[in-house]
Amino acid sequence: MTDRIRDFLRSRRDDGPCVVVDLDIVRDNYEAFAHSLPDTSVYYAVKANPAPEILNLLARLGSSFDCASVGEIEMVLATGAGAGRISFGNTIKKERDILRAFEMGVRLFAVDCEAEVEKIARVAPGSKVFCRILCDGAGAEWPLSRKFGCAPEMAPRVLESAHRSGLTAYGVSFHVGSQQGNVDAWDQALASAAAIFREMAERGIQLSMVNMGGGFPTDYLKKMPGVASYGEAIFRALSRHFGNRLPRTIIEPGRGMVGNAGMIEAEVVLISNKSDDDPIRWVYLDIGKFNGLAETMDEAIRYPIRTERDGDAKTPCVLAGPTCDSVDVLYEKAPYELPVSLSIGDKVLIEACGAYTTTYSTTGFNGFAPLASYVI
């Protein structure tokens, strides 16, 4: 809770749950990444929070951008940032979207198979491509699936096919898993990347870039290492595996850039018990999985929750959303301790909600409005 957010919430007209993002914190986060990894280009992961105010700020600060769709590319171009600062980082793209991105000036594309290379070669000739490899994501609170990336031993074949198709085989990418708590998680992935660089050199193809993805965390219920700790560990790993010939490097912070900059204000709609002898209270909020808190799925992301009654005695509570869908339960396996005095109509503050809340909010499931967003 920053003073700016506190003042905004005091003065706003109460019209339902909202997320408020403080741009001063976004600026501080960008500067921390730029300082901790000074020779690495920052490509903000637009999907984390594409608010125009955030994109405009980051464009002014000199950030580049990781985009997952033509729509996100158009949002970035609207800031005045040139297409040379955009990576089309989704490995799953329609050929017409690749063409549209190419027409808008984008020349950097992600792939993880030869079929995607073929699409890019047909409609975006001469572009740079990087191959995403699989990474186990150990240590991440939101591990990524096998949906993106190929086995490291397959990457040279994919990159050579790009080279033979007239594209520039530019480099390798990976993602160590979102909300990664292990500062050394990049080491093994960089070892794999270095091995791919060596094999490609033996084939007469010189790679130039390693995209080290995102994974940089924000603080939720527990304190995570600072950006400087990640920067030091990543530089050690780069030096260990690449020696004195360091490649160009990219990072794609999303959660780490905006997560701690936002806070949600919600309201208690109902408090009840499921039986007379059940000690667990159910607390229903006017926000749930469908209104921006999708990352509570499997209780993977556990947000800090504050109330004005936190000094009172507490009791375990299940937290749930307002919709008539049975999956709209936020925390049940590990109930939250909330004040016994908590009442219907009380406000609840959910912290560190700047990332993956507005973009995960439905357009109107059950008739509930999408999560309101304010950037200050």
Notes on the structure:
This protein is an alpha/beta fold. The chain has 2 domains: 23-258, Alpha-Beta Barrel (TIM Barrel), CATH 3.20.20; 260-375, Lyase, Ornithine Decarboxylase, Chain A, domain 1. It has helices spanning 3-11, 23-36, 52-61, 70-77, 95-103, 114-123, 155-164, 186-202, 227-242, 255-258; strands at 18-21, 40-45, 64-67, 86-88, 108-111, 128-132, 140-142, 168-173, 178-180, 209-211, 248-251, 262-273, 281-285, 305-307, 314-320, 329-339, 347-351, 372-375. The strands form 3 sheets. Strands 1, 12, 13, 14, 15, 16, 17 and 18 form an 8-stranded mixed β-sheet that branches. The protein has an 8-stranded parallel β-sheet with strand order 4-3-2-11-10-8-6-5. It has a two-stranded antiparallel ribbon with strand order 7-9. The longest helix is centred in the middle third of the chain and has 17 residues, at 186-202.
Q: What characteristics describe this protein?
A:
alpha/beta, TIM Barrel, Lyase, Ornithine Decarboxylase, Chain A, domain 1, eight-stranded mixed β-sheet
List the helices and strands and how they pair.
Elements: H1 3-11, E1 18-21, H2 23-36, E2 40-45, H3 52-61, E3 64-67, H4 70-77, E4 86-88, H5 95-103, E5 108-111, H6 114-123, E6 128-132, E7 140-142, H7 155-164, E8 168-173, E9 178-180, H8 186-202, E10 209-211, H9 227-242, E11 248-251, H10 255-258, E12 262-273, E13 281-285, E14 305-307, E15 314-320, E16 329-339, E17 347-351, E18 372-375
Parallel strand pairs: 1-18, 2-3, 2-11, 3-4, 5-6, 6-8, 8-10, 10-11, 13-15
Antiparallel strand pairs: 1-12, 7-9, 12-13, 12-17, 14-17, 15-16
